[in-house]
Design brief:
single chain, 242 residues, alpha/beta, TIM Barrel, 8 helices, 10 strands, disordered N terminus, disordered C terminus
């Protein structure tokens, strides 16, 4: 086999790798299969929440997770804020990733690491103002990734995701530049704006729920258009983490 000639250069080689894609609010094995077939790197399975779309019974989360190939990450979204309920959820649902959608005490991360070796931890930061930057930096050393969303956890009935709203991507970009873990961009993404979000933030991955749904169901056309837009973004930001 012959390889193309390698031209010596002092500049780093940049490979056009698009962000990973996580399709959230998966509600059935059929939706999971559709997301995987489209090229998604991860799916999101939403457990009970105080508000928002997508919650399904933990028994269904477990059934769906069992159908997903091991090369695709399965995210269990939990609103629990203490270690033992989160541990119990993961052990029952058997996902390989925990997405913590609300703020937890620092000691919770250590407890989860001890009890659930090999399970990845992703902390959601709801980008509301400049304080979100300090929140992200503070937790970045404890988790495997950060996901930037547009919820309002201070409301009487908390919004912890699935709002369909975008947030200030300039703040998200600052977070992405300051932390040393992969960053997922979420919040109001759809086939029409995802490329702009990628260009402005340069995330490791993007996360989408309501932007791909019609009457609550994952729409194949929207999914196809979204994946095409993400792939078209390859190379827009050469500093994206791999």
């Amino acid at each position: 086999m012959q390889f193309p000639e390698i031209i010596p250069t002092t500049e780093p080689v940049v490979f056009p790798i698009p962000p990973r894609v996580k399709i959230c609010c998966i509600a059935s094995p059929a939706e999971a299969a559709l997301a995987v077939a489209s090229g998604a790197s991860a799916i999101g399975l939403v457990s009970r929440m105080p508000s928002g779309p997508g919650p399904i019974p933990e028994s269904l989360i477990r059934d769906i997770a069992e159908t997903v190939p091991p090369t695709v990450a399965t995210f269990l979204l939990t609103c629990e804020t203490t270690a033992q309920p989160i541990i119990a959820q993961q052990r029952y649902c058997r996902t390989n990733t925990l997405q913590l959608v609300d703020e937890v005490a620092t000691g919770v991360y250590d407890s989860l690491r001890d009890a659930l070796p090999g399970i990845s931890l992703v902390q959601v930061i709801h980008v509301r103002d400049e304080d979100s930057l300090s929140e992200a930096v503070a937790v970045s050393g404890k988790v495997d990734a950060i996901l930037l969303d547009s919820g309002q956890p201070t409301l009487a009935i908390k919004e912890l995701g699935g709002t369909g709203r975008t947030h200030d991507w300039a703040v998200s970009r600052r977070i992405r530049d300051e932390v040393d873990v992969p960053v997922f961009l979420a919040g109001g993404l759809n086939p029409d704006n995802v490329r702009k979000g990628i260009e402005q933030v340069g995330p490791f991955g993007v996360d989408v729920c309501s932007g791909l749904r019609i009457n609550g169901k994952l729409d194949e056309t929207k999914l196809t258009n979204f994946m095409q837009a993400v792939r078209a973004s390859a190379g827009l930001d050469s500093r994206r983490s791999n």
